[in-house]
Amino acid sequence: MANPADSLESVVIGDGVTVKGVFVIPSKAVVNGIIEGDLTAEEVLIGPTGKITGRISAKVIDVRGQLHNTVVSEKSLIIRATGKITGKVHYVEIEIEKGGEIEGTLTQAIEGTLNAASILNNGPAPV
To answer: Disulfide check for 57: which of 11, 16, 93, 116 has CB 3.0–4.6 Å away?
Structure first.
């Protein structure tokens, strides 16, 4: 069972749910629905039915669904076999399973040198 304290700082966007806006999550965001907007969290998991159209920033990003726009992963970016990213991708460490897709630009950085705020404040990436 998950630690109850962790769940207080986390959010789950369920399958069939669409939310719009700018979201700052202190801990973990699990997205099985749709986010139209920007998301910042410690850890992000996009499920197979999940889709984010906006800028995303997290230490760890695990993609099984779709991301469209600018992605900043300060530690680890994992694109699963069902995952697809379109846009600008900034990462330290990347893993792509067979079948995973990326379309756009990739920029690798050394851990601790990515400044998500400055990258994301340069405006949305053309898609």
So the answer is: 116
Residue of 74, 124, 70 lying closest to 102 (CA atoms)? 70
How many whole angstroms separate alpha carbon 98 and alpha carbon 9?
Answer: 33
Band of pLDDT at residue 77, cut at 50, 70 and 90 = very high
Cα 63–Cα 64–Cα 66 angle in degrees, nearest 5: 75
Is 68 within 8 Å of 47 (Cβ atoms)?
no
Distance of alpha carbon 35 from alpha carbon 13, whole angstroms? 8
Residue owning tokens 């499920």? 47
* Cα gap 113→85, rounded to integer Å: 22
Instruction: Note the pTM of the prediction, 2 decimals.
Output: 0.86
Return all residues near 74 (Cβ < 8 A) that are at least 6 apart.
Answer: 57, 58, 59, 92, 111, 114, 116
| DSSP-based three-state secondary structure for 117 | helix
The whole-number pLDDT of residue 71 equals 96
